[in-house]
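Amino Acid Chain and Its Fold in Token Form
===========================================
What this section holds: a protein sequence and its matching fold, both as plain text.
Structure line: whole-number tokens from a learned vocabulary of local backbone shapes, matched to residues.
Purpose: to set a sequence beside its fold so the mapping can be learned.
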Amino acid sequence: MGGSNHFRVTLSVKKEPDAGPVYCKMETSARFRQLKTVKLSIDATYRFDISFKPPQLLQSLNIGGESVDLIEQSRDGTACAYSAYHCTKGAKPSARGHREDLAIAMRVLGSGYLTTCLQIKYYKPEDHSHCDWGSRLHCIELDCSSVEGRLVTVDKETYRKLGIES
């Protein structure tokens, strides 16, 4: 029997081409599945940076139901980092009072499948007053564990806002 494997995944999202900030907001209504909503523009490209401590081998990444290419950015004895791009071309602006799910699925060698879901709201590209309002999202930390390399469980999820870095 294999042992338990614990690691932290840090996920950050930036708007390309200039690594622009992405915003999120706390929901005041209990009608939504999650307490936080990440705001994205339609017809835009976003860079997802994913790091692992301790280092893990990320075999595949799926964002919003689509397989995306991974670029390994760095690796040492304590951590590793990957980048991938996700395009929102073809997405429709979210209806008022509605939120979308953006599923993120990773296959981590030796640990198994890790899935998480961001609650998002899509905005028209020119709608800066809503899309660029709220807290600047620094990153989302996922404290994970895997038993016997089959399925990764997220034990704790933490949204870090810019300026509240740990």
Q: What stands out?
A: Helices lie at 128-131. The first strand starts at residue 4 and ends at 15. The CA atoms of residues 7 and 144 lie 5 Å apart.
